[in-house]
């Protein structure tokens, strides 16, 4: 979330329902996250993938080839304007962070979602052309309508193995300190920040008759 929260969210509803809002360091579009969201993050050194340069378009194009392997023969999978879609309905949004020697490609997959939660999002001022001003529920789709979750995980692992050596690790192993100080830049927005984004509200004056 690089733009102002008031441009992206229905702040009043977010505050009323006490929805946590996280500003992630990779930026990208605003995503409703719950137990139905599947995340896939690729963290690579600049020379890890032959032919891929540390630039957004190069990384995105390669990711399209990677997921072509995953979704081969499933619906009409395409990479369209930085989104993963079946036909003209989005099911995966991407964000990136690129430094001199390393890059991250992060995807939020809509495995499932509650339609009511989409009401927390405003219609974005900037949207891909293929969206054609459709509302959120007409623009997105659920992955679970196209393949089982276990198949997605298996096919993604197989696709990644065509480029890298893959091994399973416990989550606890990734949390061990590596000796370097980690300063997180992804953070939870405070209630005060959201209230300031909402701005002053009109005063309600009671009238008795």
TrEMBL record:
UniProt cross-references to PROSITE patterns, sorted A to Z: BPL_LPL_CATALYTIC
Domain BPL/LPL catalytic: 1-168
Any coiled-coil regions, as ranges: none
Gene3D superfamilies in UniProt: Bira Bifunctional Protein, Domain 2
Domain of life according to the entry: Eukaryota
Protein name: BPL/LPL catalytic domain-containing protein
Organism annotation: Citrus clementina
